[in-house]
């Protein structure tokens, strides 16, 4: 984190400031000037780095060749390095070679390194390194200490300039510059300059070499030698000790020790100052500007003036007397900087600009690594590269603000204390690195015509088995995900890519450890419960669960939710809810458009009406039966006075916009509740009438000349119901998103929904069909005055994954990142598109995120804190993100009141989910002394009845009644609509304001239930008596044991095993082989069931439980799975994409693992095994496609 002016304002009184020691008084104008410590670390709102062809968001360099030098006879402490071109031309690229000089002690070795020309698809090739010479700087190696070396005499690297310390017999040390002919076998010294004498413990000398000058400094001495005039000049100033030095062809830049006064603590502080001298005269031409003292660092240790052309709004042009452009420095962090940045900060990198004789700091970036050297290039626009102890290199963007792009170890790191020096060759955009362990590496851009590399030092590229990754600080993002986010999501959000990836890095840094701790706590609690069961359950269960922290004390005050800005579909209205895999654009669009559904289509094609339509077009007899069904619904929902809808001869509006109707017997009639009619459009022969009942709209479509309209006296062609009010776009259980490619599709589709432009094209009936989001509908209001607009789409929620999930689409700390954190930021960023009024989802400015698989209030509170941080990062108002709490884990059910309490300002949704909840129930009691009952009996057990009732009561107790959704689970048989129509009425009768349905058709039919039942009235009749609640909570904790299972007939046990095994295989094979996370899977009786990971969890946990308790054997399970694989193969034989298992293969093995590893899988979750298998299949498919 960079320090900012705002941060200082929070810590300091308004009267405090920082002043230089040379200026103890200030004018009023001066006092308004920001102090250096705040200025140099202040952050511009425009953090965009310089744009260049070679650098985009990082530094695309790669190792293209390596060599290991022989250091047998050389001190392995590398202190000097230079690389020069062996000719002066850059035109004949393939002919270019380089000369490398490495020095240590009193020895310099010179090597020739030809430019590699061959390509490789494996490891970086070895450099063809040719030793040229070994130079001895002096005759007595023990008295010589080499400080630095540089080639001198470019464009031909023929001379080496050495800065050495020579120890005399009296222990005094003199500093010398020696110019050696690197081609001479006798180590011929061409020129020697004596600079100064000092003590043996004096500071090491500094030297910088340009084409025409050698500049050296030691202590407070600074001298310049002009090659053409062969003269030595002293600097015209007397600073304290020089700490850093650099130069270009016109100027020398000097950092020296200084002090500065700070009003923060009313004390002097050691720091550095910087001056610029003209090389010809050694006169000072620029200084640190007033109030720009470098109080953030103790001492400048590195100074760099880029020699490449600087691309920054035309700056960088300098005259012979006026230096200009950028200047970089680095040094150890001061105590003042650590006060605000923490003790982890070791150093800081500073970016400065030189204008009109003044050096001004533009940005300072703290870093946890000490900086030993600064480098710039090898491109015109950088990057800036710092190298620290242990060969840790960081690249930095150099726009208006310094920003760290990448941090990486650039040597092999096999030996401790390895140091690395870098040398740039901007002519060919190459970089050399030489480490003190002898490793020489050549780095180049990928598009530079050199070899394709495997090892990378790039913030752009890191190659792994799963593809290329882009580095952003401590995270690496797969290039596919990066492209999806930057191209499909961020445009229109107001968030730049640089900002977004910085936010993700911070989010992972702030919450990953807590996420891991919560998962560890789950394991600890389960281990304690396992031990309690093994020990015979001697302690009372509820006392035990409270003692270990599984059960928490309910809130001391009554919980009342205070969620604000909730759309009426989530609060005031009751109606169906769809859940669809958002990776499938067609399904997502179908769900989004399911706000309105044709009752005729729902009844015509399904078993709601007896019989089936004849093939070959419209079946008139079927149509009459559907009309009868539709008229019956209208009579129930919108009754007429003294008539039935089927008796109408006409119904339309009069000249005043009022509804008028008459029967075939010419009897006038109308609605028993006239206010139910609210609008119309069209005309009497072809138009629509709009009604409302229980808050839901009904559209009667009149079209007398249509096939259906001709079959009835009033010309009714269809009844369109307002069906699904909301839809959960699922990133979790119904998708098979295992890598960056899958996640990119998930996120892009969600962004398309939020932007309002998602569309997909597919084949239907041999024709190409393009599906888009429905538009809104306009009606003339009843009475004829004004326009009524109704939305054409549902309100969409997005379900993120649980906290136990990880993804390789983003890497953090070298491993897979927690996927839930990635989901939170990406889906919220996509939600900005709607909040910017681009998509039309929420009309109240809210974003709805459903969080699954949460265990207890601690995890709910964690999710809320994550949302707090995401809102802060994205600039959203507090509590913009609303949370849906899935009540599908035992610890959440047992503490639901507390879960709602910690989310009371965000919660808009709770629901029950039988399958996941049963899976967790079985896993929790896995090590009990009795097995669980058969699945059919579990559904009737007391705990699940208590679970369903308690969810509604706890929600109503917290004030969620018609202020937030209280939901029920999925109807799993999408073809059995008659049964659904008969049974799912129980959900609104139980007080639930929504319930899940598997299809738009099911949503249309389920909408009838909300016309039959006034949910608001039902909720008012439900008792929230604390005594009832306590009884239900006690029943909730009674596991579904059945000690009699062991005495069941073998045939019944086998039938249960067959059923579970067939269901597991039928789902797993499509998940693993085809990447289908939710589909209609035929059960053992060939009844199609909607399956997702929740159904898989319960089936695999059930077999694992019976296996552990000896109800079934391992051999029996394996035989059953093998036999059932043939059944599943036969059920899918008509699918051209299906590959038969035949009792073997990756998918079959995954099914085996789910069962045999089920007892030890954390909480019985299936994702880890499924993901591993799916990745293996995709890897093999990718391999085959490449072949």
UniProtKB/TrEMBL annotation:
One Gene Ontology biological process: tricarboxylic acid cycle
Cofactors demanded by this protein: Mg(2+)
Keywords from the UniProt entry: Cytoplasm, Glyoxylate bypass, Magnesium, Metal-binding, Oxidation, Transferase, Tricarboxylic acid cycle
Positions of the Malate synthase N-terminal domain: 485-534
Catalytic reaction list: glyoxylate + acetyl-CoA + H2O = (S)-malate + CoA + H(+)
GO molecular function: magnesium ion binding; malate synthase activity
UniProt protein name: Malate synthase
């Amino acid at each position: 984190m960079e320090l900012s002016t705002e941060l200082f304002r929070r810590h300091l009184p308004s009267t405090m400031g920082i002043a230089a020691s040379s200026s103890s008084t200030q004018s009023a104008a001066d006092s308004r000037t920001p102090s250096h410590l705040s200025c140099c670390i202040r952050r511009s709102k425009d953090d965009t780095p310089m744009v260049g062809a070679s650098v985009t968001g990082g530094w695309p360099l790669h190792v293209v060749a390596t060599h290991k030098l022989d250091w047998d006879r050389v001190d392995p402490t590398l202190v000097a390095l230079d690389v020069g071109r062996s000719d002066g031309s850059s035109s004949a690229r393939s002919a270019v070679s380089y000369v490398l000089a490495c020095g240590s002690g009193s020895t310099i070795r010179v090597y020739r390194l030809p430019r590699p020309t061959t390509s490789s698809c494996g490891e970086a090739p070895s450099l063809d390194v040719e030793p040229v010479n070994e130079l001895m700087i002096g005759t007595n190696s023990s008295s010589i200490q080499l400080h630095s070396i540089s080639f001198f005499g470019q464009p031909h690297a023929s001379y080496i300039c050495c800065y050495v310390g020579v120890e005399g017999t009296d222990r005094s040390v003199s500093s010398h510059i020696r110019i050696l002919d690197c081609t001479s076998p006798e180590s011929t010294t061409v020129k020697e300059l004596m600079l100064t004498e000092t003590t043996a413990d004096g500071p090491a000398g500094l030297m910088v070499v340009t084409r025409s000058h050698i500049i050296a400094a030691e202590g407070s001495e600074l001298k310049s030698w002009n090659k053409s005039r062969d003269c030595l000049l002293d600097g015209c100033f007397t600073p304290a000790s020089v700490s850093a030095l650099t130069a270009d062809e016109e100027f020398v830049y000097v950092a020296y020790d200084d002090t500065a006064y700070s009003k923060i603590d009313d004390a002097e502080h050691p720091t550095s100052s910087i001056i610029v001298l003209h090389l010809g005269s050694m006169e000072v031409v620029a200084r640190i500007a007033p109030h720009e003292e470098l109080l953030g660092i103790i001492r400048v240790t590195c100074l760099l003036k880029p020699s490449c052309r600087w691309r920054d709004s035309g700056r960088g042009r300098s005259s012979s007397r006026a230096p200009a452009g950028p200047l970089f420095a680095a040094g150890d962090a001061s105590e003042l900087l650590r006060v605000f940045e923490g003790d982890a900060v070791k150093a800081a990198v500073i970016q400065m600009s030189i204008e009109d004789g003044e050096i001004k700091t533009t940005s300072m970036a703290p870093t946890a690594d000490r900086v030993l050297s600064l480098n710039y290039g090898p491109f015109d626009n950088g990057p800036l590269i710092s190298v620290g102890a242990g060969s840790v290199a960081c690249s930095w963007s150099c726009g208006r603000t310094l920003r760290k792009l990448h941090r990486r170890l650039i040597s092999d790191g096999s030996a401790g204390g390895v140091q690395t020096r870098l040398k740039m060759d901007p002519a060919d955009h190459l970089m050399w690195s030489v480490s003190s362990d002898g490793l020489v590496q050549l780095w180049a851009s990928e598009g530079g015509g050199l070899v394709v590399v495997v090892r990378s030092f790039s913030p752009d590229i890191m190659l792994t088995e799963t593809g290329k990754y882009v580095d952003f600080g401590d995270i690496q993002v797969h290039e596919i995900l990066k492209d999806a986010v930057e191209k499909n999501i961020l445009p229109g959000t107001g968030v730049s890519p640089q900002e977004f990836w910085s936010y993700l890095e911070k989010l992972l840094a702030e919450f990953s450890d807590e996420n891991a701790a919560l998962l560890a706590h789950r394991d600890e609690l389960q281990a304690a419960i396992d031990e309690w069961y093994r020990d015979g359950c001697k302690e009372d269960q509820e006392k035990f669960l409270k003692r270990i922290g599984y059960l928490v004390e309910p809130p001391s005050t009554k919980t009342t939710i205070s969620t604000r800005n909730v759309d009426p579909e989530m609060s005031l209205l009751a109606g169906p809810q769809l859940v669809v895999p958002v990776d499938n654009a067609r399904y997502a669009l179908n769900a989004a458009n399911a706000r309105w559904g044709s009752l005729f289509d729902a009844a015509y094609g399904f078993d709601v009406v007896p019989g089936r339509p004849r093939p070959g077009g419209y079946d008139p007899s079927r149509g009459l039966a559907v009309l009868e069904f539709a008229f019956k619904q209208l009579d129930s929902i919108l009754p007429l006075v003294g008539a039935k809808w089927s008796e109408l001869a006409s119904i339309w509006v009069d000249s005043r916009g009022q509804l008028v109707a008459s029967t075939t017997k010419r009897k006038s009639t109308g609605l028993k509740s006239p206010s139910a009619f609210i609008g119309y459009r069209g005309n009497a022969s072809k138009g629509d009438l709009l009604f409302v009942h229980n808050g839901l709209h009904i559209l009667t479509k009149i079209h007398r000349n249509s096939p259906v309209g001709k079959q009835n006296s009033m010309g009714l062609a269809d009844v369109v119901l307002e069906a699904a009010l909301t839809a959960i776009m699922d990133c979790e259980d119904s998708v098979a998103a295992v890598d960056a490619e899958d996640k990119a599709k998930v996120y892009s589709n969600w962004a398309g929904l939020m932007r309002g432009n998602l569309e997909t094209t597919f084949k239907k009936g041999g024709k190409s069909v393009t599906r888009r989001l429905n538009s809104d509908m306009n009606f003339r209001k009843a009475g004829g005055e004004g326009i009524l607009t109704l939305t054409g789409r549902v309100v969409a929620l997005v379900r993120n994954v649980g906290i136990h999930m990880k993804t390789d689409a983003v890497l953090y700390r070298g491993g897979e990142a927690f996927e839930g954190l990635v989901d939170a930021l990406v889906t919220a960023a996509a939600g900005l598109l709607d909040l910017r009024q681009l998509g039309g989802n929420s009309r109240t400015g809210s974003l709805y995120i459903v969080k699954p698989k949460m265990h207890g209030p601690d995890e709910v509170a964690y999710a809320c804190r994550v949302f707090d941080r995401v809102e802060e990062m994205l600039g959203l108002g507090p509590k913009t993100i609303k949370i849906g709490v899935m009540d599908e884990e035992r610890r959440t059910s047992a503490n639901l009141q507390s879960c709602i309490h910690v989310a009371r300002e965000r919660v808009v949704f709770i629901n029950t989910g039988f399958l996941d909840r049963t899976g967790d129930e079985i896993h929790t009691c896995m090590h009990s002394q009795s097995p669980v009952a058969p699945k059919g009996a579990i559904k009737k057990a007391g705990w699940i009845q208590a679970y369903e009732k308690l969810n509604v009561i706890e929600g109503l107790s917290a004030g969620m009644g018609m202020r937030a959704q209280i939901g029920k689970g999925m109807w799993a048989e999408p073809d059995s609509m008659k049964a659904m129509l008969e049974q799912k009425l129980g959900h609104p009768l139980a007080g639930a304001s929504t319930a899940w349905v598997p299809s738009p058709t099911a949503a249309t039919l389920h909408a009838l239930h909300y016309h039959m039942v006034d949910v608001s009235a039902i909720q008012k009749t439900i008792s929230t008596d604390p005594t009832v609640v306590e009884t239900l909570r006690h029943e909730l904790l009674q596991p579904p044991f059945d000690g009699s299972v062991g005495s069941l007939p073998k045939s019944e046990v086998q039938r249960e095993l067959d059923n579970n095994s067939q269901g597991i295989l039928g789902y797993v094979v499509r998940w693993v082989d085809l990447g289908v996370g939710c589909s209609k899977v035929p059960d053992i009786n060939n009844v199609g069931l909607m399956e997702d990971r929740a159904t898989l969890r319960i089936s695999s946990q059930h077999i694992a439980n019976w296996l552990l308790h000896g109800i079934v054997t391992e051999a029996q399970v394996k035989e059953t799975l093998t036999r059932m694989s043939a059944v599943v193969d036969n059920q899918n034989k008509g699918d051209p994409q299906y590959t038969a298992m035949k009792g073997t293969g990756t998918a079959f093995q995954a099914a085996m693992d789910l069962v045999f590893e089920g007892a030890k899988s954390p909480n019985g979750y299936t994702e880890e095994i499924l993901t591993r298998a799916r990745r293996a299949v995709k890897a093999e498919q990718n391999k085959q496609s490449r072949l």
